[in-house]
Specification:
With 450 residues, the chain is α+β, with helices and mostly antiparallel strands. It folds into 2 domains: 4-90, OB fold (Dihydrolipoamide Acetyltransferase, E2P) (Beta Barrel); 126-269 and 329-438, BirA Bifunctional Protein, domain 2. The chain has 12 helices and 20 strands. The chain has helices at 40-52, 108-113, 115-121, 126-145, 186-194, 232-251, 274-282, 291-300, 311-322, 376-391, 402-409, 422-430; strands at residues 4-14, 17-22, 25-30, 58-67, 73-84, 94-95, 101-102, 149-150, 156-157, 168-172, 177-181, 199-207, 219-228, 255-258, 261-264, 270-273, 331-337, 353-361, 364-371, 415-421. It has an 8-stranded mixed beta sheet, with helices on both faces. A 5-stranded mixed barrel has the order 1-2-3-5-4. A hairpin with a 2-residue loop joins β2 (17-22) and β3 (25-30). The two termini are 53 Å apart.
């Protein structure tokens, strides 16, 4: 047999057999003291080394491969060197004769804080992050095949725009000006459509200074794409094709198991207007309600609201409390009230609505899209309405962006835009309940050291 060389973590030994682990998995080593090293000095060096090896040490080995009597592939080591010493012992799982487990590294907070240990001793979680990478790669392949251009836009922005969210604020010392970590990249991508690109997309980090739960992390990954000469009807069909392509590429089929549900990403998806969904699941008709009627409806439904909430926010609260959790199979919620979406185009046939959809799967929103507003006069009025909400105390209201309005004044073609939450999509395709399981290093409270 030809000689092979391997390296990885030493993960324990029983008699002459040891375990070597690398990023691909584990292999058994066969270590015979009298067979490692060519000279007496080398043999003695190995005898001293083997006494000092601890679980977690990195070693390099050379030797020949063979199969044991049970058929297990094994490396018969002829040389062994210590590459790096582990000063802290790894928490290796132990089981007694009664099956009781000890030293399992399963506490979620400990796993998230020490992901480097988690990935070493719980290698089953590595597959989640491999799948995450494959999802992003598949999405890129799909977009690139359509001829759309991947771009990069600023993360530090002078105005927090493009979404309704609280930003993180910082200060640039040289320019002596406040900057915000982006809550969205929408307005910059639209500027590129104005500049003449027919299709642009960006996959990157967004930052929102808001609450944390099993589906929200203040730093998250989003994909946004804008395609000229298209509308939200076209975008719904494109999303169906894209997600079906991704699930086939990553999972080998269009169905995935998410908890107790089998989700099918093959299109077409169910479509419900916002008003119809609230009528179906909450039993009320919001189509003719003004702000005070909506506030009363919220209280009747025992939904907590306050006076800073405008009409759009009140509708969003009803939808979130009464509708979202019912949308298990991929479902488009379409045609939102204009107050909920300052950046979307007015509906072509339904006054008071905009051409917007959100895609819900397993009770959570994973995509949001519009026929984009390209009328600078209408856009200015929408921004001014947002300023009024901000004056009432709405911390998520959008700021007025004069440069973006100037860009629209140069003319933007009819455009459709889409955003997909990559963390939530990964949760679905890997059957994970918590967003922390699909982030290498989720945000945590400061660690209290003893």
């Amino acid at each position: 047999m030809p000689e092979v060389a391997m390296a990885g973590r030493f993960m324990g030994q029983r008699g002459p057999f040891a375990q070597l682990q690398d990023s691909q998995g584990r292999i058994q080593l066969y270590l015979r003291k009298d067979e490692i090293g060519e000279t007496e000095e080398e043999k003695e060096r190995f005898n001293q080394l083997i006494k000092l090896l601890d679980i977690g040490d990195f070693i390099g080995v050379r030797g020949e491969l063979f199969g044991t009597q049970t058929g297990e592939l094994t490396l018969h080591a002829r040389q062994l060197v210590l590459l790096s010493k582990a000063l802290k012992p790894l928490p290796i799982v132990k089981r007694d004769k009664d099956g009781h487990v000890y030293d399992a590294f399963t506490d979620p907070e400990q796993r998230y804080r020490q992901r480097y240990v988690d990935l070493t001793v719980n290698p089953q979680f590595k597959s989640i992050f491999i799948t995450r990478s494959r999802i992003i790669s598949a999405m890129r392949r799909y977009f690139d095949a359509q001829g759309w251009l991947e771009v990069e836009t600023p993360i530090l922005q002078p105005i927090h725009g493009g979404a309704a969210a609280r930003p993180f604020k910082t200060h640039h010392n040289t320019l002596d000006m406040p900057l915000y970590m982006r809550i969205a990249n929408e307005l910059y991508l639209k500027r590129l459509i104005v500049g003449g690109y027919d299709g642009v997309y960006e996959i990157g980090k967004m930052f929102r200074n808001e609450g944390m739960d099993r589906t929200h992390n203040p730093e998250f990954t989003s994909m946004e794409i804008y395609v000229a000469y298209k509308d939200y009807n076209w975008m719904m069909e494109m999303v169906e094709q894209c997600l079906e392509y991704i699930t086939r590429e990553v999972c080998g089929r269009t169905t995935v198991q998410v908890g107790d549900h089998t989700i099918d990403f093959a299109g077409p998806y169910r479509r419900l207007t916002m008003a119809d969904s609230i009528r179906e699941y909450a039993g009320i008709d919001i189509s003719e309600m003004d702000e005070e009627a909506l506030r009363k409806a919220c209280r009747d439904l025992r939904i907590e609201v306050d006076n800073s909430m405008g009409k759009g926010k009140l509708i969003d609260e009803i939808f979130g409390e009464k509708v979202e959790h019912n949308l298990i199979q991929p479902t488009y919620i379409t045609d939102y009230p204009i107050e909920m979406t300052p950046l979307a185009k007015k509906h072509r046939s339904s006054p008071g609505l905009v051409e917007r959809f959100e895609l819900f799967v397993n009770g959570k929103e994973i995509a949001n899209a519009y026929s984009e507003l390209n009328d600078p006069i209408d856009q200015r009025e929408r921004f001014e309405d947002q300023l009024k909400l901000a004056a009432r105390g709405d911390e998520e209201a959008m700021a007025l962006d004069e440069d973006f309005l100037r860009a629209l004044e140069y003319g933007m073609p009819p455009t459709s835009g889409l955003g997909i939450g990559m963390d939530r999509l990964t949760m679905l395709l890997t059957n994970q309940y918590s967003i922390q399981e699909v982030l290498f290093f989720p945000q945590m409270k400061a660690e209290i050291r003893q």
